Amino acid sequence: MLLQMDNITKKYGEFSANRGIDFSLRAGEVHAIVGENGAGKTTLMRILYGMEQPTSGTIRLNGKEVSFASPLDAIQGGIGMVHQHFMLFPTFTIAENIVIGNEPGSGAGFDRKQAVKIVEGLCEKYGMKVDPRATVSSSAPGVQQRVEILKVLYQGAEIIILDEPTGVLTPLEVQELLDAIKQLSKQGKSFILISHKLNEVLDVADRITVLRDGAVTGVVEKGNTDAHQLSRLMVGRELMELDRKPITPGEKVLEVSDVSIRGTKGKPVLDGVNLEVRAGEVVGIAGISGNGQSELLQVISGLAQPDSGRIAVSGKDVTGMSTREIREHGLAHIPEDRYVWGANRTATVMDTGLMGHQRRLQQGGFLKLKDIRTLVSGWVQKFSIKTGSLETSTQYLSGGNLQKLIVARELEQGTPFLIAAEPTRGVDIGAMETIHGELLKRREEGTGILLVSSELTEILKLSDRVLVMYEGRIAGELSAKDATEEKLGLLMAGGTL
To answer: Which residue range forms the structural domain that includes residue 9?
Structure first.
């Protein structure tokens, strides 16, 4: 056995993040770890990577007991980790990012030509194509993911930990990554894959360990399990089927008319976009990242201003208004990036829940703290948000738990129109079920929802109509009954039906 973790326990005060976990990894194996948010997956891997120290338990590498006091120790032991949020220098070239820390050259000089040759050699050896001379900031997320993997391979990693590696990738990029993992495992590299996406896990993993509440609930071979069994092991119960009831849409709650934004290189970012959302319907927007979806959401919510065109929310022209004014006219917004737009990392859980509700939860200029505490406590319970207390800083929440808090906060706004951008990004299957159910409940109550998601299964499951964006335009529209992944994929790639 290449790696053996025995009886790993990690306590934070009275809270146990890991409870007596046993985990093993064979040479050339892809071993996935799945579980709900807060199940202990990332904590276990942070211990393996030297970012945390276990309260008790042992780690053996090639049969020898080891202890990693830091990530540097783990790297020297042949373990590399690709984090959920890329840790690259945007203004550096790909070659510079890969060799950083062990740069070729003599004395104080850095040999850039040699760095490029090194990366070209890595690309050829491992079958992963990147342009060594390109900057990271100009590279697509799928390329950045490959850069992270090549970086740990350059460091000599035999064991590669991937933490939610497909969260920001397109379907094509996801498949390219899974193919790369399979190819590298054939070459003897071993992978530990943390993921919520069971279809991807079942595609690439050899074995799967399921965690729930910090403990192992099952270790299964891929050939002996399916998504249904894994889901049950993850959440401890059967998942319910979604029921999207037929509804006749009502009045327009969003109207986007001929909206355009000029790009920096002459090509428009948004080019004459027209769309509408009516009360009681979910309109999905599909598209490969970078085709104008983000800019469209920013324009609608007031985070950016259009160069031309008109935007109306609940029948009121809100073009050019501030974010606050647009929200007051009936907009709630689950943002696509929870850290950039959705929360302040240093704010408490209670303060993060309060954001956007503060004007109605005050009296005589003072916040009604008791009411706020009751409200946010209810969300924590309903959405199973793992937090020590309401005074915990959001920077200590897992990404999925912060996502659930933001979703709860925006759903509770009770507005006639809701933007739901990547609403289930980084959340587990149980939370996904809850969020999807709540979105459909709001739809039945008459809320109009604009859903933007990189997950085509989510788009197809929730939407009454699906629009596809390509190069800043609406490339096509399909009804729920006509939409398929194949048709959407064709439109997303610039084709026609």
So the answer is: 3-235
Cα–Cα distance, 462 to 315 (Å, whole number):
25
Which of 170, 20, 8, 153 has the alpha carbon at shortest distance from 81? 153
Quote the tokens at residue 306: 């259009």
Prediction pTM value: 0.70
> Angle at the Cα of 439 (from 274 to 233), degrees rounded to 5?
130
Given a contact cutoff of 8 angstroms between Cβ atoms, the answer to whether 350 and 371 are in contact is: no
Q: Is residue 497 situated within a structural domain?
A: no
Give the rounded distance of the alpha carbon of 176 from its chain centre: 18
pLDDT tens-place string over residues 32-76: 999 877 788 989 999 999 999 999 999 999 999 999 999 999 999
Give the sign of the dihedral formed by CA 134, CA 135, CA 139, CA 142.
positive
List the one residue out of 254, 227, 218, 74 whose CA is nearest residue 159. Answer: 74
Q: Is the same domain home to 7 and 56? A: yes
pLDDT digits (tens, 9 = 90+) for 142-162: 888 889 999 999 999 999 999
What is the crossing angle of helices 399-411 and 429-444, to 10°?
10
